[in-house]
Write a structure and sequence with these properties.
With 431 residues, this protein is an alpha/beta fold. 40% of the residues lie in helices and 20% in strands. It holds the Pfam family GTP-bdg_N.
Length: 431
């Protein structure tokens, strides 16, 4: 479909420094992305500009330097640490005589490698098609506009028009299938809401250690690796927290600065888990020098997807890589946990995280002593099924005194049930 040079695994990296913070990228992060994609870096070309050039993104002299580096190192791909326009890509490919990939294309390629579930593959394909649709070029000549004469009449549309039509049809098909997936997820979320099961979602910069922490908390075996975007498909597991009960823990895709809009749009169904969460665990790699910048990027993405108002608990991960790292919980003025210091790799401080989750998610509790006659044995059984009886003492007249501790929500529900079944208020049995 595309008259483009074949991609390869030996790359020349190009990084340009801009004075504006909004245009600035991180060279070390580009190297991590390239490594995560399984590509070998042969050389790095750096430059400084105030604004990008419309023709090559870099200046003419620097573009020729990149082409020389391709020939010298026998590279078969050039990767820019920036977003390129379709025209800039084509001009650079013509000059370098090899494939040119920008930062967005590189991230999309990594996502394509990582997608494992049917939904994940659909979402990646959708993002790729939206990205490719702006980069269609002439690939063959047999589809041309209609010409006069026998044997010269074409199908009436150019190859580019055919490509665009095919891509539009495929995008429409994928959107329809993803809509079904989103409805299924919505049904699951509604069921959890009806059961009043809280949802906790792990968010954070890519490679911050979310999946390692997820495995440590849930004793799962979700794929975790020291590479960017090791996790792509969302994973849900049940976690039992004392005084809270079952909690759904969601592991989500990591964020990155200047996350391509195609990905944000394509992964809308996945990111819905983050929007609907009761609590976000914002995992930070505390040993990373760029930790503050990465944290700000995560907050920007959360705002973009409409999850910036969800309560957060900060997780300072990888304290084992600090000289003076100690597991602890930081509290605010209301003695509410706001930050947990731990190491998901070694397990140090994970018990403190469970304690902090209990304090953040624990509902208002009701503690009462109930005096129940023998005729209400069914109520006693119900209290035990709710796991809310802390102790039981028999009375001289045959009644039972039950010391009960339960959430205010469960207490209100139980009061209503007792009133309907026995015609009495449960408050009348409180000693």
């Amino acid at each position: 479909m595309f008259d483009r040079f074949e991609s390869g695994e030996q790359a020349i990296l190009v990084h340009v420094d801009f004075p504006a913070e909004t245009d600035r990228e991180d060279l070390s992060e580009l190297k991590l992305l390239v490594s995560s994609a399984g590509v070998e870096t042969l050389a790095v070309v750096t430059a400084s500009r105030s604004t990008p050039s419309s023709r090559y993104f870099v200046g003419v002299g620097k573009a020729e330097e990149i082409a020389d580096a391709v020939r010298i190192h026998d590279a078969n791909i050039v990767i820019f640490n920036h977003a390129l326009s379709p025209t800039q890509e084509r001009n650079l490919e013509k000059l370098c005589q090899c494939r040119v990939l920008d930062r967005t294309g590189l991230i999309l390629d990594i996502f394509a490698q990582r997608a494992r579930t049917h939904e994940g593959k659909l979402q990646v394909e959708l993002a790729q098609l939206r990205h490719i649709s702006t980069r269609l070029v002439r690939g063959w000549t047999h589809l041309e506009r209609q010409k006069g004469g026998i044997g010269l009449r074409g199908p009436g549309e150019t190859q580019l028009e055919t490509d665009r039509r095919l891509i539009r049809g495929r995008i429409k098909s994928i959107l329809g299938r993803l809509e079904k997936v989103q409805k299924q997820r919505e049904q699951g979320r509604r069921a959890r809401m009806r059961a009043e099961i809280p949802t906790v979602s792990l968010v954070g910069y890519t490679n911050a250690g979310k999946s390692t922490l997820f495995n440590r908390l849930t004793e799962s075996e979700v794929y975790a690796a020291d590479q960017l975007f090791a996790t792509l498909d969302p994973t849900l597991r049940k976690l039992d927290i004392p005084d809270v009960g079952p909690v759904i823990l969601a592991d989500t895709v990591g964020f990155i600065r200047h996350l391509p809009h195609e990905l944000v749009a394509a992964f809308k169904a996945t990111l819905q888990e983050t929007q609907d969460a009761d609590l976000l665990l914002h995992v930070m790699d505390i040993s990373d020098d760029r930790q503050q910048e990465n944290s700000e990027q995560v907050l920007e993405v959360l705002e973009e997807i409409g999850a910036d108002d969800v309560p957060q608990l900060l997780i300072c991960n990888k304290i084992d890589q600090l000289d003076d790292g100690q597991a602890r919980i930081d509290y605010d003025d209301q003695q509410r946990p706001i930050r947990v210091w731990l190491s998901a790799q070694t397990g140090e401080g994970v018990a403190l995280l469970r304690e902090a989750l209990e304090q953040r998610l624990r509902p208002e509790m009701v503690v009462v002593a109930l005096r129940i006659p023998p005729s209400m044995g069914k109520l006693r059984g119900r209290l035990y099924s709710l796991n809310s009886v802390t102790s039981e003492q028999p009375c001289e007249n045959g009644d039972l005194t039950l010391n009960v501790r339960m959430s205010a929500v469960d207490w209100q529900r139980l009061c209503k049930q007792v009133a309907e079944e026995y015609g009495d208020s449960l408050q009348g049995f409180v000693e």
